[in-house]
Amino acid sequence: MARGETIKITTISIIFLILLVQVKDLKGFELIFSQTLFLFEFIFKFLKFRHFKTQVELIYDEIYNIFILSPPKEENIFIARILDCTMNYECLKYFCKISLSSRIFEKYNPTLSKEWDIIYHKKIETLTN
């Protein structure tokens, strides 16, 4: 997907530069100016997408390190590192204005809520005993 977006933005930019060189009158300039604003919207979305992809890869590497390469010995440090990765991901989603589709949320929410309740109650029981 990233490669396709890169090709699309590059192609649009080249076409824009070719058209800009061809402008001979004011109407042509107005057209090019309006297209520039449209192009900047595409470029901004592309840059935001690239930033998101890069940051998600970094978060993935961190999670891989936590679970596979060097899991912490202490449970508190393990939980803190997982929460740190989760918060980094959630902040990244907010920054890039990415939200979960309501269809996916409605599909998985009941099962995940039940699973979370089971985990929560088991943890509470172990802490009280």
TrEMBL record:
This is Uncharacterized protein. It comes from the Eukaryota. It comes from Piromyces finnis.
